[in-house]
Amino acid sequence: MKNSQGKNILLGVSGSIAAYKACDLITEFREKGYSVNVAMTKDAHHFVTKLSLQSFAASEVVDDFFSVEGRLKPIHIELAKKADVIVVAPASADIIAKLAYGLADDVLCCTVLASEAPLLIAPAMNEKMFFKKVTQENIEKLKKNGVVIIPPTKGHLVCMDQGMGHLAENASIVKAVETALRIA
Prior knowledge:
Blueprint: E1 8-13, H1 22-31, E2 35-40, H2 50-57, E3 61-62, H3 75-82, E4 85-91, H4 93-100, H5 107-114, E5 119-123, H6 127-131, H7 133-144, E6 148-149, E7 153-156, E8 162-166, H8 170-183
Parallel strand pairs: 1-2, 1-4, 2-3, 4-5, 5-6
Antiparallel strand pairs: 7-8
């Protein structure tokens, strides 16, 4: 059920060390009155737990097509219909590539493909990965298809380097989502 503002955010969480920041992002969205559903990739489980995300979102976290017993309707279609906006934060190089090419091998990718909601992506990865030609080509392909890219910032990376690839600040992500919701 949608909240009083009538806006539902689907947060996609992918396999990046920055996945732990999704909990704070969920909190910020909920404090602004948005409903939040979460779809996480299998790789995201290495960095944040489903229980943590579910506790912050106060709603079911979907990570698998087949984990929800008794569901009569396809979960990715239900999530796609419910979402007013989809934001993938953090977005790993892997999920960016999958989305750029329309792959549908997990519940998050299938939901994105089934949705007509605006899609926002906040990359988070090592600077070398971010600036790799193929990653930049995938980002450009997504932009050409109407996806909003919330650029990473320069900051401390897990490899102890300083560089571009640090997940955008929550305030920037929230602002981009609110802009997309006004336009949609």
